[in-house]
């Protein structure tokens, strides 16, 4: 039996978008995919495909590469980094002002785990809103 592993960055980003739009559990009910570039073409450095927002606040941007996608978290970077690391997604800080956290989604199988990172960040915001 041959297993197909999805490693096309654009397709991974599409799967992530569908997962985020389709789930209403946990902190994902308030999460939306916004500002989508439907004609995005993958690049070596990553091309912005869409934003992930919660109550009109951008949580992250999603970028597509030829062979993966990555999320660039703008808020709750520590939560994103810790959650991603705990569930075995590759993560690294981005030394910008303000700092960002990059979480890499390298296959279609990683999409559910990437959704868990978004859920953790959204949940952290929900708890600070209360």
Mean pLDDT: 91
CATH architecture: Alpha-Beta Complex
- Helix percent reads 25-40%
Order of secondary-structure elements: HEEEEHEEH
Label this structure with key terms.
130 residues, alpha+beta, six-stranded antiparallel sheet, 33% helix
Summarize the helices and strands and which ones pair or pack.
Layout: H1 9-22, E1 31-34, E2 47-54, E3 57-64, E4 69-73, H2 77-86, E5 91-94, E6 100-105, H3 111-129
Antiparallel strand pairs: 1-2, 2-3, 3-4, 4-6, 5-6
Helix pairs in contact: 1-3, 2-3
Domain DUF7993: 1-127
Protein name: DUF7993 domain-containing protein
Describe, in plain words, how this protein is organized in 3D.
The protein is an alpha+beta fold and 130 residues long. It has one domain (9-129): Aspartate Aminotransferase, domain 1, CATH 3.90.1150. It is built from three helices and six strands, in the order αββββαββα. A hairpin with a 4-residue loop joins strand 3 (57-64) and strand 4.
Briefly characterize the structure.
This protein is α+β, with helices and mostly antiparallel strands. It has a single domain, classed as Transcription regulator MotA, C-terminal domain (Aspartate Aminotransferase, domain 1, Alpha-Beta Complex), CATH 3.90.1150. The chain is built from three helices and six strands, in the order αββββαββα.
């Amino acid at each position: 039996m041959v297993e197909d592993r999805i490693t096309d960055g654009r397709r991974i980003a599409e799967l992530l978008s569908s997962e985020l739009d389709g789930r209403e559990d946990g902190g994902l009910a308030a999460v939306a995919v916004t500002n989508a570039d439907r004609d995005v073409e993958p690049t070596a450095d990553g091309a912005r495909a869409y934003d992930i927002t919660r109550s009109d606040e951008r949580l992250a941007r999603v970028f597509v590469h030829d062979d993966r996608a990555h999320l660039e978290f703008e808020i709750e970077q520590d939560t994103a980094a810790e959650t991603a690391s705990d569930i075995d997604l590759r993560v690294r800080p981005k030394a910008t002002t303000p700092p960002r956290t990059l979480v890499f989604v390298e296959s279609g199988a990683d999409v559910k785990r990437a959704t868990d990172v978004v859920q953790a960040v959204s949940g952290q915001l929900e708890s600070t809103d209360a």
